[in-house]
Amino acid sequence: MPVVTPTNTEVLSFRGLHLYHSGVSNCSMRVRMVLEEKGLDWESHHLNILKKEHITPEYFGINPNGLVPTLVHDGVVIIESDDIIDYLDETFPETALKPSDPQQREQMYFWLHKAVEIHVTAIKTYIYDKRVGKNMAQNQEEEEMYRNLQTNPELLEFHRRSTSTGFTVEEVNAAKAIIDGCFEALDRDLAKNEWIVSDAFSLADVAWIPLQFTLERLAGYSFGLYANIASWAERISKRPSFQKAVLDWFPPEMLGSK
Known about the structure:
Largest sheet: 5 strands, mixed
CATH topology of the largest domain: Glutathione S-transferase Yfyf (Class Pi), Chain A, domain 2
Radius of gyration: 18 Å
Number of domains: 2
Strand content: 5-15%
Strand order of the largest sheet: 1-5-4-2-3
CATH class of the largest domain: Mainly Alpha
Distance between the termini: 36 Å
Shape: globular
Order of helices and strands: EEHEHEEHHHHHHHHH
Helix content: 40-55%
């Protein structure tokens, strides 16, 4: 679990659950959904990433990658959405979101980690190329601040490509091929179960529904070939946690593509 020691020591005095998040961020959606599924009280620290509100010394002092989400629980700072939702399920076991069967649990972790594994190379690349990149363009002052704050080479290179030079056709096609392969496999799994790894809703579903939602709504990705994915997404859309954690926070002006 990536617990970090913040240089912005203000958060060390926080008590309870505090979440730094953004309405448009699929990674933030995961954490909000788990909080809602479990009925936990939490304090919101919303950052509009489209307005670069996360690119500040104060926030980089909390999350050294400058990404959302970040969870602060009783002064402990946890980053990376997959680790945060796993932490929440372990710390607040009521309404468990992990299967008790070891094989199903292993499969759940496979899909949970796969969602993170393809995030930059496939999901972000595809969505930024199709829509979000133009909203994230930085002026010279913003670019300089980001370069001074960001120390992660992968993220520096991604933002250089997404906001300046753009991605090549080959890179976008490669990203789409990865996405296609993952959703083809998920569609086959969902032919056997109501949810991704079993007939119980789990962290695997929480990890993937924000990707389905943002790919469709932000990038115009078509799920027309995946009937089981479409039914699964429809079932999740009726859950109160989806309504509160995804739709209530998502910027209305970004809903366009469906």
